[in-house]
Amino acid sequence: xxxxxxxxxxxxxxxxxxxxxxxxxLCLAAPLFIGTRNLDTYQVAKIMEAYLCLLGIILLIPVFxxxxxxxxxxxxxxxxxxxYSLHIIRTLWALFxxxxxxxxxxxxxxxxxCAFDFGEMFYTVMANALFLGGMGMFVFALFDQAxxxxxxxxxxxxxxxxxxxxxxxxxxxxxxxxxxTEKHYLLAGGLIFMxxxxxxxxxxxxxxxxxx
Amino acid sequence: xxTEIRLEGVCKYYGKKQALKDVTMTIPSGMFGLxxxxxxxxTTLMKILATLHRADVGKxxxxxxxxxxxxxxxxxxxxxxxxFSMYGNMGVYEAMDYLGTLSGLSKxxxxxxxxxxxxxxxxxxxxxxxxxxxxxGMRRRLGIAQAILNNPKVLIVDEPxxxxxPEERVRFRNLLCEIAEERIVILSTHIVGDVExxxxxxxxxxxxxxxxxxxxxxxLNMAEGRIYTAEVSRMELExxxxxxxxxxxxxxxxxxxxxxxxxxxxxxGAKNCEPNVExxxxxxxxxxxxxxxxx
Amino acid sequence: MLISLIKKECSMWxxxxxxxxxxxxxxxxxxxQLEGGELIRKPEPGGDDYGYIxxxxxxxxxxxxxxxxxxxxxxxxxxxxYPVGFYKSVTLSEGEREQLASxxxxxxxxxxxxxxQALVEYSAGxxxxxxxxxxxxxxxxVPWPIVVPxxxxxxxxxxIMEEVSDIIGxxxxxxxxxxxxHAEVKMTYExxxxxxxxxxxxxxxxxxxxxxxxxxxxxxxxxxxxxFGTARVLKDKRSQVKEVVYAKKAGTAAIVCSRYLGxxxxxxxxxxxxxxxxxxxxVFVAKTAGVKVDYLAFVKYAAGWLLPTVLFVTAFxxxxxxxxxxxxxxxxxxxxxxxxxxxxxTLQWAGWNLIPRFNSLGEYNLFLYLRxxxxxxxxxxxxxxxMLLGLTLTVYALKRKGVLKNGKVxxxxxx
Lengths: 212, 295, 415
Description:
With 212 residues, chain A is an all-alpha fold.
């Protein structure tokens, strides 16, 4: 428990904090250009799918940033605690804040008299956020290139605006037209990406083998 | 044409902390060693010479050119930072070519000089080796090669031998000596052996102040007659460690050969001996207190 | 030295995964959005649908706007606004509704009671019927009664509309730039034919295709250069080569500009190569119609339209990353892109938007109408890019002298 707290505190102070601030800014800035009052379910879905889900990218990708430097990575790998537990702790914290902020955001929308199913919308934003963030983590783990890790999910997000025809069940903006099924695929995809990323990172670290 | 570096009353602050305190000295041509503990201000001083930092107070000139004139200084200095690295996926030749271009060498000059220099640093078989695949020693050699690409009048090398194996270290020192034949080479180190083997002139920095500037000979002279050796038991050793500055010891069974500093003959059985640079350095750092010794 | 450094930068990008990802994204985007699109055809007489056109007739604009405003007002729903593209509903207070009603009264020179009464009469005689195919037939027994009197000048009208716009708030449909949208009329055969002739002889076919190309490609060029600027700066940090480069003879301008131009070239070159695809389509259409094609149209349009976007976005991310040495530029770039894309009022619009839109093939006259704002817009972003480049130069020079460090507070003490 003490170890867990220590790692969490260090992660919070040296890694998560700036990204957390950006996330909060994203949430707080929302009313400046998004209507938050009296929205119907499709309008709320648009905010979840096209705006709030970006929190996933902001919060999840930094999980691997602290040990981007190979020397630091080797150093950490040499310690008794396995690297993946470190990554899992960081991921959990990212998820914690993601959940917290999404709940708060949805809570505010409810308070502003928006009509939507709370659980459904929460699931929607989680599915999108985890899919995009997980994709970034996976790319990061595979290529060890942070900029590239941001690029791929963001581009995926951007080209989704072009319409659903190329994306099948992994279309991000389905709830805006009332389709919920995609969310299960996205959530599952996101979880697989994240697990794959942590696993891949473990392999990369233990063999000091980097594809780039 | 002047071939010396002059510092006059140089001060440098990082926030409230003063990294250099009123440093005045002259660095002549040849190998010049900058000694001091970690954090003594060596890197700061070298960065000022390489125009990467600015002195807050004081005047610095390199071969008659004020360091404020950074463009001119950069064209006549070569700099090898403490942890030299290059883009990982670049090959050796490519890295040299890139840095050569940044040094303002024409294509023809690069084509001529790069193979020469890689030959000199023994990397001529590694043109395509990627930087990320190089060992520490190889990387350091690449570093020195890139630093002398523009045939600089002044070469500034920060901690060049740290982390090298003994063989590599000797080779590296010799390489620097060779290079120093026609220019000023300033090397900083906390390894006294490096200086002893190569430098004629040295300076010692301590917490930002200049403690000593002069020749190796002069440093040795200061400690002359103050270094003793004695064969003592382990019990006695503890006492000696408390009373004197111990500069070396060698365990021989139950006895210890100890080497230490003392102003006068400390006890029967202690023999006066010739100081080496390490003795003199330790003597300077511990005995002389805050006093600056410029000979 | 600059040329040789630029070459080195380009060859560095040739080894970068970011560059290849960019090329692939560019191609995929092009194929999915533009490939197989419409071909330009000569309109046949006697057709019933040649598309719509926004009328330039001030009378039509004024009356169309007034009609839409009255309908919006009377439907008692909130007003829709799009400050940055996202829907934001605005509910007016009773006082504001009062003000708005008085604006309407001034527009039609009728009292509120009068025009409300007229509206009731109109609604009574209005019916919509649907046939089995879902086609609607609108029957109006009474013609639309609330019109702008003939002595109203367009300037007066604009002044009142400005008040209306102020009452509703930013991003509404009654802003000055959007007024024309209320004047949509059906195109006649003659207008359609004129449109077609313009494409053939004024646009030389390729111009029309080039605009559509710029419209689409501009969307991704508003974002992708962000990754290049950030990646380039962070590459130096990660490889720990900053100090080695700082100490070299090369001037700050040469280093920064070579990196900047290297990125711009590596982004712009694939765009030019890609433009051969729609170019070939234009050549085919021109050959079929027997007219001469302008082979340089794509180069001209791309350089004038897309290059400023690339210049700006690259400079933006380069400057921010040089200043912060983190990933902030990516997020900031995302925000800029988002705002730019979704604040475009219509799909044929430049304004001061980073991503000017012109989402139609042809419409030469509309383009001529928009061209001055497009030119001003592009100059604006080029100037902005140069200013950001200047900022980057300053930051780099200060870092090189050791005055500024990483944009971070921590200061490593030298040993």
